[in-house]
From TrEMBL:
Official protein name in the record: Efflux transporter outer membrane subunit
Xref: Gene3D superfamilies: Outer membrane efflux proteins (OEP) (2.20.200.10)
Keyword Metal-binding recorded: no
Species whose genome carries this gene: Desulfofervidus auxilii
PROSITE patterns recorded: PROKAR_LIPOPROTEIN
Length: 467
């Protein structure tokens, strides 16, 4: 009989192959199949396939200090640590659901003693009844004839895969945010240098006007204007110092630990800190972004939940079985005559349960919600890439125009000095020319930083940095 029980369990396990999960069909992309290459985008050199996902972040970031800062962030950032823990949690939940497909075996042993009073004793005498037992068997095991447990297992698997993609997305976001904060710090430090130089120029101008005012040549209005310019630039200098400290605070927060001063930038990087990113013409690259892949896994999980909701309409069958020995004497416990077995097969069919229909309708609505979220994720990814391509297509032209303006102002400054030395113009023209030049250099610094920040953002938008 014990052999028959084992055979029954094996047959039931094999028969558990039915599934009501709807067949998954990949949704069509709710965006254009190609990125535009006309108009302002004709300045961009598109390849058939982007190189962003193939470039490891260690190769993409060329600035050695920034690379070390990013390494620290990947090691200490709490958001990324939470994303990694979420993956472990999802893996454990998947393990639980997968284990429900198989029977749970257990072994028990016990000793039971009971006093039988003389009133109910067959011998009309009180006595103590003893029972020794050893059992090995199945806990109540739901046999997955109609795929409900398999559907839950599939849902847990897809959620686990979504968590893995979310971890990759968290890493990409972290690398992008750290790089952007680092670049902002570079720009503010460079602008502080320029602001200090502007302050020296304004102070020279004020001293010149003051000497003329004392001599009765300049008016009080001229003196107040010069003083106003000095104080205005001082406010800007203090504000930039404040911004630099805020930038460092942001960087420390993103990294998750205090950054040593030797890793902080001193100003504008001498070289481009990032590798060149070549965009591909096809927008299907967006499907490989971790956030899009995570959204698709969640969509597949919603299909599995529909399968579980459908399976709930069918009978649930459970099996409990034990094999063991029972005896009133411990010495006879393992003799053949003491063997015992138990087999309990139960089935339950929902005849009337409105909750099942409500759960089925809910699963279908949830699939529509997740589908909409998936499409929205793709649209958002497409917009991110388009925004970065728009800046990429125009930023070089802006920088070149600003460089021409700087060169023109440098020439104006040189001519102002010559005219001052020749006695044609006053020294005011020299100071004003220098002020305009320094302000133009500040604008150029900000444009260069915007170009660098856009490159890391485009790298992330095309799915790079998740390795």
């Amino acid at each position: 009989m014990e052999r028959n029980i084992v055979v029954i369990i094996m047959v039931l396990t094999i028969l558990c192959g039915c599934s009501f999960i709807p067949k998954y069909k990949k949704p069509a992309m709710p965006v254009e199949k190609k990125f535009p290459d006309k108009g302002i985008y004709k300045n961009i050199s598109f390849d058939n396939e982007t190189n962003a996902p193939k470039i490891k972040w260690q190769d993409f970031i060329k600035d050695p200090k920034l690379k070390e800062v990013v390494k620290l962030a990947l090691k200490n950032n709490r958001d990324l640590r939470l994303a990694i823990l979420n993956v472990e949690q999802a893996r454990a939940l998947y393990g639980i659901k997968a284990a429900e497909l198989y029977p749970s075996l257990y072994a028990t042993s016990g000793i039971e003693k009971q006093r039988i009073p003389e009133d109910i004793s067959f011998t009309k005498k009180a006595y103590t009844e003893k029972r020794y037992s050893v059992n090995f068997g199945l806990a109540e095991w739901e046999i997955d004839f109609f795929g409900k447990i398999r559907s839950f297992k599939k849902e847990a698997l897809e959620k686990f895969l979504a968590a893995k993609e979310n971890r990759r997305a968290a890493q990409i976001t972290l690398i992008t945010e750290v790089s952007r904060a680092y670049l902002t710090l570079c720009a503010d430090m460079e602008n502080l240098k320029i602001a200090k130089e502007l302050l020296r120029t304004a102070e020279e101008n004020f001293e010149l006007v003051k000497s003329q005012y004392d001599a009765g040549v300049a008016t009080e209005i001229d003196l107040n204007r010069a003083r106003t310019e000095v104080e205005s630039i001082k406010v800007n200098v203090v504000k930039l110092k404040q911004l630099i400290n805020l930038d460092i605070n942001t960087l420390n927060f993103l990294v998750g630990t205090h950054i040593e001063e030797k890793l902080l930038p001193k100003g504008l990087p001498e070289k481009n800190p990032f590798e060149e990113v070549k965009p591909g013409i096809s927008s299907y690259v967006l499907l490989n972004r971790p956030d899009v892949m995570a959204a698709e896994h969640k969509l597949k999980a919603s299909y599995a939940r529909i399968g579980a909701a459908r399976a709930a309409f069918f009978p649930s069958i459970s099996l409990t079985s034990t094999i063991g020995t029972v005896s009133d004497e411990l010495s006879n416990l393992f003799k053949g005559s003491a063997r015992t077995w138990n087999l309990n097969l139960k089935g339950a069919l929902p005849v009337f349960d409105p909750r099942i229909w409500a759960a089925y309708k809910l699963s279908k609505v949830q699939r529509k919600i997740v589908l909409t979220q998936y499409e929205k994720t793709i649209q958002n990814a497409f917009k991110e890439v388009m925004d970065r391509l728009t800046i990429k297509a125009t930023i070089d032209e802006q920088i070149e125009a600003q460089k021409k303006l700087v060169r023109s102002l440098e020439r104006t400054y040189e001519l102002s000095i010559k005219r001052y030395k020749q006695g044609i113009d006053s020294y005011f023209s020299v100071l004003y020319a220098k002020r305009d030049l320094l302000q133009a250099k500040q604008a150029l610094t900000n444009l260069i930083m915007s170009k660098y920040a856009n490159r890391i953002a485009l790298y992330a938008a095309l799915g790079g940095g998740g390795d």
